[in-house]
UniProtKB/TrEMBL annotation:
This is HTH-type transcriptional regulator, LysR family. Signal peptide: none annotated. Gene3D superfamilies: Periplasmic binding protein-like II, Winged helix-like DNA-binding domain superfamily/Winged helix DNA-binding domain. It comes from Roseobacter litoralis (strain ATCC 49566 / DSM 6996 / JCM 21268 / NBRC 15278 / OCh 149). CDD domains: PBP2_LTTR_substrate. Pfam families: HTH_1, LysR_substrate. The lineage of its organism: Bacteria, Pseudomonadati, Pseudomonadota, Alphaproteobacteria, Rhodobacterales. The keyword Transcription applies. GO terms for molecular function: DNA-binding transcription factor activity; transcription cis-regulatory region binding.
Length: 326
């Protein structure tokens, strides 16, 4: 390896590409993520090695891997790079009107009403900002936040540690039982499996499904199911058609307005349990942007979802609520 180069300053772009490659282990994936060509990425990584005068990669391996020196370098720059990103975000977004780029991830639970209003509001408050909106599962959005592919996301709070991501709780969304309007058996009998009405559940790879399953396990309830679905509207349509019953939340129930005349909602029997809807942000997301997004989300949830649900179903008034900001 050549001696350290004194002709160039250390480039922040080199360091960012180095971190991205260390995470993806692929020149092509790094190029796709950064919008550069593979040859340009390779050139920048070579320039970093030449500047430092050390071998960061084992170029004889395909794909190339970090050397012990490269792994040490990766650990040593991690905190500094996070600090640089945070400082850059705060500097560019101290005034939100000056922000230039924002990447937002949302779950489908909000895409019919809250997310569109948020998008319009942000475009007005941040007129020179380029936005990227991604809709996906909570698992997917949290993963993208960890990889710094998104700046903030609205998700179901996972039970697992978020590591360096920051959780801003928004909404307490209790689990409820939803039955066909035509169901004649009592809810306790249905939940206990004493009827022929089958349990229709969310796809097992979703956070909400894991939360429901964990609670049923704590209660010692085993519910054989014949249907799994990742789409709330489809699940509500199946229940409305009398094909079974399900466990869902008031937020999701509120999105199924066309099916509600054929549905009945009940508190889940026994000890109540629920999920938390949260705004999750990367540590380098500007606080001014977080405050702007959080305030709008709370306003829309309160006006469009919570107030209407409380009027229609008064017993949810103390359960389906915004979570106080700390």
């Amino acid at each position: 390896m050549a001696t350290p180069s004194s002709h160039k300053d250390l480039s922040l772009k080199w360091l960012e590409l180095f971190q991205t490659y260390a995470r993806t282990h692929s020149l092509q994936a790094t190029a796709n993520e950064t919008g550069l060509s593979v040859s340009t990425v390779s050139h920048h990584l070579r320039s970093l090695e030449e500047h430092l005068g050390v071998a960061l990669f084992d170029h004889a391996r395909r794909p190339m891997v970090l050397t012990p020196t490269g792994r040490n370098f990766l650990r040593n720059i991690a905190q500094a790079m996070q600090g640089i990103r945070k400082a850059t975000a705060e500097a560019s977004s101290g005034n939100v009107a000056d922000a230039s780029y924002l990447r937002v991830g949302t779950i489908e639970d909000l895409d019919s009403d809250v997310t569109p209003e948020l998008a319009v509001h942000l475009s007005q408050k941040m007129p020179d900002c380029n936005f990227l909106y991604h809709t996906g599962t909570s698992h997917e959005i949290v993963k993208m936040l960890r990889h710094r592919e998104l700046d903030l996301g609205i998700v179901t709070s996972p039970a697992k540690s978020l590591n360096d991501l920051i959780d801003w709780p928004l909404l307490r969304d209790p689990f409820v039982a939803v039955l066909p309007k035509s169901a004649e058996s009592s809810l306790p009998d249905i939940v206990a499996g004493h009827t022929k009405l089958p349990f229709l559940q969310f796809s097992s790879d979703l956070i909400i499904a894991a939360q429901i399953e964990a609670q049923l396990r704590r209660l010692g309830v085993e519910l054989p199911n014949k249907f799994e679905c990742g789409n709330n509207q489809t699940l509500m349509a199946m229940v409305a058609a009398g094909a079974g019953w399900t466990i869902t939340t008031p937020l999701l129930f509120s999105r199924a307005r066309r099916f509600q005349p054929k549905l009945q909602m009940h508190p889940f029997p026994g000890k109540s349990f629920g999920r938390t809807l949260s705004l999750i942000t990367s540590p380098d997301c500007a606080r001014s942007v977080i405050d702007l997004v959080s305030h709008k989300l709370r306003s829309e949830l309160s006006q469009q979802v919570i107030a209407q649900t409380h009027r229609a179903i008064p017993w949810l008034k103390d359960q389906f609520t915004l979570i106080d900001q700390v």
